[in-house]
Amino acid sequence: MKSFLKRGIIEAGCDEAGRGCLAGPVFAAAVILPKGFKNPGIDDSKKLNQKERDRLRIIIEKKAMHWAVASCSPVEIDHLNILWASVKAMHDALDLLPIIPEHIIIDGNRFKPYQSIKHTTVVDGDALYLSIAAASILAKTHRDEYMAGLHLEHPVYGWDRNKGYPTAEHKAALHLYGETMHHRKSFQWNIPEQLELF
Questions:
Q1: Does residue 18 contact residue 76 with C-beta atoms inside 8 Å?
Q2: Each residue of 1-45: pLDDT tens digit?
Q3: Which residues are registered as beta bridge partners of 118?
Q4: pLDDT tens for each residue of 142-175
Q5: Which residues pair with 12 in a beta bridge?
Q6: Are 5 and 11 in contact, with CB atoms under 8 Å apart?
Q7: Stretch (H or E) spanning 70
Q8: 3-state secondary structure of 33
Q9: In a 3-state reduction of DSSP, which class is residue 103?
Q10: Does pTM surpass 0.85?
Q11: How far apart are CA 87 and CA 156, in angstroms?
Q12: Residues with Cβ < 8 Å from 97, sequence gap 6 or more?
């Protein structure tokens, strides 16, 4: 995995978590790693188990030059659509960084320019660049932590386990108990074709 796309400048990696969920916010992180940073354990968060992600989160938050996490609520997701809500969460995370990066690399193939900073979208970037992989780990762990908290308010949906994703357990609970304020109203959770998009 490469440390940077463009060397010799301040580069931030961005990624999101929770895009395919039926409930909860979408989270995004922005991470600026120091020159020479290496950690062989850091990878796309989807390839890691929870214990590995939690361990790496501590390392990333301690060793990164700067990092930030932000989110967009279900209401914002319903208003903007999930793609642009994900991008807004990335912009909000970038806003929280104490310095302005000179270049941004983003996992995926869609992004809106952030200020006047040059950016590059990278398909499967979380498996190619350390800063994007680190951002994916922070976004995922912060979101999982948030959903575990929501589970205490609404335990019937199993959010401590499914984190809001469209599992059989979650969909069965939706049929039994209906939606909460934390569900994304624009997501047609009861239509199989909708779930195939994620």
A1: no
A2: 898 888 889 999 999 999 999 999 999 999 999 998 989 899 888
A3: 103
A4: 999 999 999 999 999 999 999 999 999 999 999 9
A5: 32, 104
A6: yes
A7: strand 66-72
A8: coil
A9: strand
A10: yes
A11: 31
A12: 12, 30, 32, 66, 67, 68
